[in-house]
UniProtKB/TrEMBL annotation:
InterPro entries: BaiN-like (IPR004792), BaiN-like_dom_sf (IPR023166), FAD/NAD-bd_sf (IPR036188), RsdA/BaiN/AoA(So)-like_dom (IPR055178), RsdA/BaiN/AoA(So)_Rossmann (IPR057661). Keywords: FAD, Flavoprotein. Residues 8-400 form the RsdA/BaiN/AoA(So)-like Rossmann fold-like domain. Its cofactor is FAD. Residues 200-347 form the RsdA/BaiN/AoA(So)-like insert domain. Pfam families: HI0933_like, HI0933_like_1st. Transmembrane segments: none annotated. This is NAD(P)/FAD-dependent oxidoreductase.
Length: 402
């Protein structure tokens, strides 16, 4: 139980990054206080992966960091990811006897419950005592004041006061506000003169309007597609919803999207160029609708055929017209009118600028003893365990220097 006093470090936020930072520091003999306004630790961990927590991705490595993490500095994440790898976290999971499985594309999930991951992290915090350290927690504890004076950070929370030479901002971003998420990290960072890269919802469904509203009638229909935004492609499932587009391929693309930008969907990514002309020769009495129905749900095939302009058998179509239909089906243009915002965003892109942070320790360059980790920082991973691995790695990086 936390009480007023002096600590070696104070961590604001008991999410994945904050807990990892706390246990790392505690097991180095540090006396740490973790403060969170929530009722308990790891609230986002508990709801992640459908309650089974996609706790890492075997491909979330420093070698892939530049491609699979978005940041104004695409190299920034490499250092932390290189020093604490997916294998390191898997080793901890195995040591605690947590059964897990790989789903697709390197994504690892608990066989049981996400609660096992939170319990593991809390148990590791308790293990600090073996190393002469201690991790105290304060929940239901909104922070009302943060100041730095005489080389110490002075925190006021729930009428209590605590001081430490090191302060860690690990309060995440504003995604999923129903979980209590806010932009507190950015306000605090600005207070200490740090720059903020404009935050925006990421890994988030698109909303459709205008001519694309027609597709909203297909709510619940999914398809294996190749989604494109600029030169970035993702081959996974897309889901049509009553508001627009969702599913893994869409969530991935959303992190790269800017308002007003078109996206392209290849509804038949396995079809080779010329497939419609070949079908015309082999089965001249086929129609566009029947050709699409062979690969897509009937409802989706109906709307695509209608938009293309179905007109009789393929035998009645010129090769040029079939080429045009192929091009459209392989890069169907949508112009989302927005996203479903932070309420449905899995993470926040942007955040505290990495320009002001040390890659090695996550400490700010201009304010001694101030560290920033996890989602609060301008590092955003792909869907599928990448953001948890960044939370673990950045937490360990900072915790080692507290």
């Amino acid at each position: 139980m936390a009480k007023s006093g002096n600590y070696d470090a104070i961590i604001l936020g008991a999410g994945g990054a904050g807990l990892m930072c706390a246990l790392t520091a505690g097991q180095q003999g540090r006396h740490v206080l973790v403060i969170d306004h929530a009722s308990g630790p790891g609230k986002k961990i508990l709801i992640s992966g459908g309650g089974r927590c996609n706790f890492t991705n075997v491909n979330a490595t420093s070698a892939n960091a530049q491609e699979r993490y978005l940041s104004a500095n695409p190299h920034f994440a490499k250092s932390a990811l290189g020093r604490f790898t997916p294998s390191d976290f898997i080793e901890m999971v195995q040591a605690h006897g947590i059964a897990y499985h790989e789903k697709t594309l390197g994504q690892l999930f608990c066989d049981g419950s996400a609660r096992q991951i939170v319990e593991m992290l809390m148990a590791e915090c308790d293990r600090s005592a073996q190393y002469g350290g201690r991790v105290d927690f304060a929940f239901h504890a909104p922070v009302s004041d943060v100041r730095r004076a005489d080389g110490l950070y002075h925190i006021v929370y729930n009428g209590l006061k605590a001081s430490a030479p090191a302060l860690v901002i690990a309060t995440g971003g504003p995604s999923i506000p129903k979980m209590g998420a806010t932009g507190f990290a950015y306000d605090l960072a600005r207070q200490f003169g740090l720059k903020i890269v404009e935050p925006r919802p990421a890994l988030v469904p698109f909303t459709l309007g205008g001519d694309d509203v027609l597709f909203r009638e297909l709510s619940g229909v999914s398809a294996d597609v190749d989604a494109r935004c600029g030169k970035v492609h993702f081959r996974e499932a897309a889901l049509l919803t009553h508001k627009g587009l969702s599913g893994p391929a869409i969530l991935q693309i959303s992190s790269y999207w800017r308002h007003g930008q078109p996206i392209g969907i290849n509804f038949l990514p396995d079809r080779k160029s010329g497939w419609l002309r070949e079908l015309k020769r082999e089965k001249p009495r086929s129609t566009i609708r029947s050709a699409l129905s062979a690969a897509l749900s009937a409802r989706l095939a109906d709307i695509l055929a209608e938009r293309i302009g179905e007109g009789g058998n393929l035998a009645d179509w010129s090769d040029k017209r079939l080429e045009e239909a192929e091009r459209l089906l392989s890069d169907w243009p949508f112009v989302p009118n927005g996203t479903e915002g932070y309420a449905k965003a899995e993470v926040t892109a942007g955040g505290i600028s990495t320009d002001g942070l040390s890659q090695k320790s996550m400490e700010t360059r201009t304010v001694p003893g101030l560290f920033c980790i996890g989602e609060a920082v301008d590092v955003t991973g792909w869907l599928g365990g990448y953001n948890f691995q960044w939370a673990w790695a950045s937490g360990v990086a900072a915790g080692a220097f507290l």
